[in-house]
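hey so u asked for the seq, here:
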Amino acid sequence: QWLEEVKALWKSLGSDAVDVETFTQRVADVRIQAYFRRLGLEVESENAAGLFALLDFNGSGKVEIDEFATGIQMLHGTAKNIDMARLHHCVKALQRQISD
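ran it, structure tokens below
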């Protein structure tokens, strides 16, 4: 059932791959925020860009369904999981900077 809810949320975002602008626009909709709440995440317009950055694992500027589902699964639950995901994202960003 959880996976079905994630798929329904993804469909409500609108396309195969979502960029940060589209993501933040969609998250402004209270119905989308309600979907996230049902999945155990508090997402609002103010933190949408930060969440997008956490979900964009490959740094492409777009989030696809596999990244979305993986990210939501990682973030599902307590704030501790969200903190760990943010830390993971920061480490990946640092690794990219070092290798460049």
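The mean pLDDT is 83. The beta strands are 17-19, 62-64.
lmk if thats what u needed
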